[in-house]
Design goal:
This protein folds into two domains: 87 residues; 54 residues, bsu07140 like domains (CRO Repressor). A four-stranded antiparallel sheet has the order 2-1-3-4. By secondary structure, it is α+β, with helices and mostly antiparallel strands. The longest helix is centred in the middle third of the chain and has 24 residues.
Length: 167
Amino acid sequence: MFVLDAPLAETVVRGAVVYLALLFMPRAAGQRESGGLGLTDVLIVVLVAQAVSGGLGGGSRSVTDGLVLVATILVCSLAVDAAAYRFPRFAAVVKARPRPLIRDGRLNRPLMRREFMSTEEVLSRLRLHGVHDPAQVHLAYLEPNGMISVLRRGGEETDTPVRPPAE
């Protein structure tokens, strides 16, 4: 149960390669689908769950293999975060940034196309901030977590988005 099934170096390299591959793949999907969690948060949860599943379920991988893989994934995550903090050019590649969705009341149609956002969806998200017309918006950003932040004309920030009532 605690004996490694695979060589330690192979397990570490596999964990690092999978982490890095999955770090870059979601960037192609865009920001708006990630919801409240950041893409790297979702990535960590999925990878850790997969890494320990064999050891928990008694599959072909040992508990030790799973723990080595989890440690590798967490070290990779910390290394990417540290490198992004220290090197802005690297951060631009691996970290999503807020992107302007509305500027002075004008919708950013190319961004909307890239994120597959219809005008109706943008208007719906604005209403959650208490804004009924894009002309009221000085700046609105699509944030890395998929949320929209809104500054009205005159520089005032809008209310925090209201959650719909539970049914």
